[in-house]
Design brief:
Elements lengths: L1 H22 L8 E6 L8 H9 L6 E6 L5 H15 L4 E9 L10 H9 L2 E9 L18 E2 L3 E4 L7 E6 L2 E6 L2 H20 L9 E4 L4 H10 L8 H11 L6 H11 L6 E7 L3 E8 L3
Parallel strand pairs: 1-2, 1-3, 9-10
Antiparallel strand pairs: 3-4, 5-11, 6-11, 7-8, 10-11
Helix pairs in contact: 1-2, 5-6, 7-8
Length: about 290
């Protein structure tokens, strides 16, 4: 935790500056800050450090999304959508930062070996603005202004409560990854995507792309088969991110979103992530501003 407190703020600040630059939004215009992380704790935390490092106003509204795991970014985006719905002039900065390699542990269990091989460090950020906020034309060349976010949809798979866990123990943070997870996602993901479309006022029409959390090769194979993607519709971007960086927990899906944009995919898109619970969380990105 000493290393997390020392290292996480600067990594988070680098990602935040890149997102603000990409959106052509000044730090002094940020009204809300949402920080997502599950790999460390401190108080005052990353949120307070970002206020100082980025030059945010001392009145910025701060929210911490803590210890929710790999789907934390979707919860962070949902929090930003809620802030923008409450005040259409809001400018929300969502920052995900994870230092997974702090939790490398001795031990020969399959769970520990898989987690040690799979997870990496990373930070990513996004700017979410209300309807009354006009983005600068300078942002048009980047990943800014890509679409409108919904409140999203989430579902627990109750029988999977203990299939994916993340606990603080006397020897560090310990993860459990059951082999049942890919099979469960393969059988459930299509129905959940359909429910998400209905719950957010859409149709069951296939989106142009799926922005899938790169939980691991087995997870991506399960989603690919469960949604009959045939290796396309954006899942190739998730595989590229997994090969390049590993699973960087909450920040990973924002890396995948950036990669899908580089692959020239555009909304409508469905962001899809998984985590302890067993939880499946989604949020929709439509082409409407």
């Amino acid at each position: 935790m000493i290393a997390y407190e020392r290292l996480a703020p600067e990594l988070a600040a680098r990602a935040a500056r890149a997102a603000l630059d990409d959106a052509a939004v000044g730090a002094d215009h940020v009204t809300d800050l949402v920080v997502v992380s599950c790999t460390g704790f401190s108080a005052p935390g990353v949120d307070v450090a970002l206020v100082r490092q980025l030059g945010l106003a001392p009145t910025v509204r701060r929210t911490i999304i803590g210890f929710m795991g790999c789907f934390g970014a979707i919860v962070g985006l949902r929090s930003a959508v809620g802030a923008c719905a409450a005040d259409s002039r809001s400018v929300c900065l969502v920052v995900c930062v994870e230092l997974c390699t702090l939790h490398l542990r001795h031990g020969r269990s399959a769970d520990n070996l898989v987690a040690s091989a799979l997870f990496g460090d990373g930070a990513a950020a996004a700017v979410v603005v209300g309807n009354e906020v006009e983005l600068s034309p300078a942002s048009a060349g980047g990943a800014a202004g890509v679409g409108r976010l919904t409140m999203g949809f989430g579902r627990l798979i109750p029988e999977g409560r203990d299939w994916m866990t993340w606990r603080v123990t006397d020897t560090g943070f310990a993860m459990t990854l059951d082999r049942c997870v890919p099979a469960a996602l393969k059988s459930a993901v299509a129905a959940i995507v359909h429910q998400a479309a209905c719950a957010t006022g859409g149709t069951d029409t296939r989106p142009d792309c799926y922005v899938v959390h790169p939980g691991g090769p087995g997870i991506l194979d399960a989603v690919n088969k469960g949604l009959a993607l045939g290796g396309g519709f954006g899942i190739e971007a998730a595989r590229a991110v997994l090969r390049r960086y590993g699973n960087t927990s909450s920040s990973a899906i924002l890396f995948v979103l950036a990669e899908t944009l580089r692959h020239r995919y555009r909304p409508p898109a469905l962001l899809l992530a998984f985590g302890p619970g067993l939880a499946v969380e989604t949020i929709t990105l439509s082409p409407d501003r």
